[in-house]
Amino acid sequence: MSAATAMAMSGPEFRAAGTDLSERRRSGLSCGEVIDLTASPDMIGIAWGTDGAARIGALTAIAAIASDARLAQAYPGITAAAQGLATPQIRHMATLGGNLAQRSRCWYFRNPQIACLKKGGSDCPARTGNHLYHVAFDLGPCVAPHPSTMAMTLLAYDAKVTTDRRSGLSITDLLGDGSNGAADNLLAPGERIERIELPAPLAGERALYKRAISRSYAEWPLVEICVRAVISGGVFQQVHITAGGIAPVPLRLVASEAALQGKPADAATIAQAAALTTAGAKPLPMTGYKLELLTGLVRDVVERIAV
Amino acid sequence: MTTTTVNGRVESLPDDPDALLIDIVRDQLKLTGTKLVCGAGVCGACTVLVDGAPVASCLMPAQAAAGKAVTTVEGIGAARLHPVQKAFMAHDALQCGFCTPGFIVEATAFCDQWRATRGTAVPSREEIGAALSGHLCRCGAYDGIFRAVADACAGRFDGDHVAAPRIEARDKVTGAAKYTVDINHDGQLEGLILRSREAHARITALDLAPARALAGVAAVSLLGDDRIVRFVGEPIAAVAASDRKSALAALAAIKLAYEKLPAVVGLDAGRKDGAPVVFDKASRKRAGNVSEAAGGPAPWKQNIRGPTAVFSTRAKKARSWVDEARQANNKLLVEATFRTATQQHACLEPHAAVARFDGDRLTLHASTQQVFHLKEQIAKRYKLDHDKVRVIADHVGGGFGSKASLGTETIAAIELAREAKAPVRVAYDRQEELSVAGYRPAAELKVALLPSEQGALKALSVTAHADTGAATNSTIAGLARLIYPAEAKDLSDFDVISNLPPGAAFRGPGGPPMAFAVEQSIDEAALRLKVDPIALRKRWDPDPNRQRLYDWASGLDIWRNRKPQQTGRYRRGIGVATGYWLYLWQPNVKVEVAVKGGRIVASTATQDIGTGTRSVLADTIAREFDLEPSDIDVRIGDSSLPEGPGSGGSRVTASVMPPTLQAVRKLKAQILEQATRKPAPGSNAPWRELIARSPDIAVVETRGEDGKNTAPGIRSPLREVGLMGMVFGWMMRRFSNIAVGAGVPSSVQVIEVEVDTWLGHVRVLNVHTGIAVGKIASPALAHSQACGAVIQGLGYALYEARELDPKTGDVLTAGMEDYRIPGIADTPEIDVHFDEAGFDHVLGNSVGIGEASTVPTSAAVANAIHDAIGVRLTEIPIRPDRIVAALKGRDAA
Question: What ipTM was reported for this prediction?
């Protein structure tokens, strides 16, 4: 503990499973009122429309998503992402809504003794300090990557978010474009996520998820991607590539998508698309390596999709 | 009021929204098997089952357990040990035991589910690794855990038979083992420490009165008399109150004023001319110590202390030969600069102390590596009679060098307990543990290695600058004297002091960074000389213990079948490296071996930090009497017992084994002398009968000098280096109570890696570790130590780094998410080879294993990576960012 005034956040906060909030309460980072979310039946579980589209309640546990066989069939990128994040014990508790609305994992933000943009401060200490694990697409004043793996994968699926006040929000509507350094999402005070709606899967679509980390498991991604595509007659169609860990919000890699769209699913096309992943990148002094990893990941995952 | 069911009993839950499930379990119900470690859901030590699913109780709101069934580790083995518990015991799948309850809970759930759906099929390493990926073990018990979980799933532990090579294993797998953080006296207060927010400042005002004015609060100053703080996190004051929340309020009430002083952070900034000076001449004695022994005199200018170059020999000659070779563009001259990272001990049990005064008697429970010496330090500091201070450490959740001094947690607990007139517990939180509790300093090593034209080692130059923070006494380069003799050696060590927390001794201090640089340089020389790297070591390193290990290593199939360098995305490579540590023992160590009530009782004031000291004593004595280890009662962890060794410098086994054997010999004679009846003729357990009928007898023996060496080439390594070595040895003994014995504990490792050149990921496939530390006292436990040493070395090589804010020195990696230690799925197949010769001059023939076994790992990994990708990685940890940077611009896969 320290003598300086803690940079505490004193506003009310919702609590789902508490896997993020409890840590911030213990450290003193969060000290306002806690409002426990009570689950109405439609906020828990996975429901299916007649068109084969799924709706996932915001309080559905990540482990339930990770182990749902029908979801794995229809939206394999989503179940794979759910299987890949955090640890088994956290996945049993943590919810989809909580994953989307969790706060930044930046090591300056998490230190209650250090001021930053997300805690009412005037600048980003990571930008001028140590940003080894921060963004390589510098899109706003805060350089922390967005922590939500589920947001990254839902972006690849064009998912829509329903809150208690609004519906039909895209992931970009929910999280913004990265230019707002003060917040991790654009929910209004007191607004809460109720469910996620997915479009019906496309015929023959495939998807894969992968994160690059230094160890084998249980690490925040250096870079993570979800690739979703239909390959028809040996040609890429409907390609969606999203990436996390590299920008203040999950990104769609539109240049790489365009390089694949309508092209033959072969090594040359894939190498070309992989080389374009870094279009628009603005790495920080310590994060150039993330672009190498992003290129490698896209090549890896797209090659496996194309098999 | 809401309720939950815990281990079958209905319990009430508090309304406090901030109460977490772990608070209910540990504090309200006193079920202390569940451990709080990271507080962030990363390490899994707090895992409990909620309606059968493993969850992190350190994050789960207590109210979320309402109406549910909670099972803690105490609920798992309650009626009858679970097969997983028996398997952990049998496979020695634990060391210090602090992570064990969490592993047991998760593995039990996995095993039950596996058995329900898969019968007795054996899960793969990959399946076990994924299932247990939410758990961390700092001792590195993963090898045993793999075997235990696989065998439990396969139904091999369904029977009632329970056997454990580690005698306290049952307490550790059931959660019964009590650690310092689990001590809870009536009326015990919780102590917290006020720490500096400034990297360098003079405290102009410190007013504890507003804190003391709060009900039930005690407060003490921890400021030095110069009132200067020299790093973020330096202790200023401490408070105690009835609970953590009240103590936090008391901390906030303290009034403090600073005058900021200019600060400097880190190895590069600290060396610059004109950098702010951290310790002026008058305050130099305040600096900490990063070695296992006290340091000698050294020049000290501004923030640079050094060179310490006592281990050089013909240094000028070495420098001129290297200069000449450089000018002549001699292709054999190997020159490189290496950088190693700061490694945190990251003990899962934090630094903790519980102090309690009963009149003028002090009882201190402490998470310490030195119960006996700590008692003496406390008695001296507080001018107490030695027999009125008692230090107790039944179980210690890891130490690795960081718990070998009288620390702030102990000082604060004692002073607060005295002021509050109540017992006080001080336990560091994870942020403190990963910032101010010590570390292995980072270092920069410049190496020049010159072979002669005949292929001998002509000159070796190593200059090391260590990033010691507010501490001194790093020896890295100097360690290169005791291996690879050369015609000339120029070895200089420097401490670079800056406004960072003080480093501390860490498992083989100086050894791993020295090996990382020198062993890679040797590897490079082998390439240039076109000699097999093991053959070159065999040629240049005459130590007899290592000669045998080189023969073993060069005979390994994996070495003999090495392939030429690979291309493509995934590339495999094999590397070798050597390490050693000094054979140290502690004079004056006493062991009592006694017959009490018809049983053998062994007592000495040492402690078990996960290394297996209890079992070493029990196994040794059991062998002598032809009994089972469980027949021996071992009493340690209590300073009131006969003087025992500290758990540092790999010295415990070599310090306790000889007096134990002497005592056994005398005790046997006395038992026979006093026996009124001889054992039945032909009895297969004569000693059992004699002991059962013997009156109580106690024999205390003191560790004596070793015998004269007989084996050729076995000498004290310090004697080999001449007068300075003998002076160094004399100082170690005089000032640090450590004797340097003859013979060199050694390790040679052969490691295979696979590098993913696209994602920069290094996978260690298998490790062969050959270890020469004499006769193995407790084979299963030594195997655990050997594997754990490799795993910690892999963390050092591949993952672990303290990251700082470059201006303030704030430790950014102060949580287990950001300070990355190896997990079970990162564990390779590990083949352990013990060469048991070399220490015949030591009674019992055994010396310690802890340090020698971890020294070579990072260098072997780096050599393997070079073999795989053709690029030498000169900086650790070798993370993905460094691999992709090293490969950038090279041949695309």
Answer: 0.97
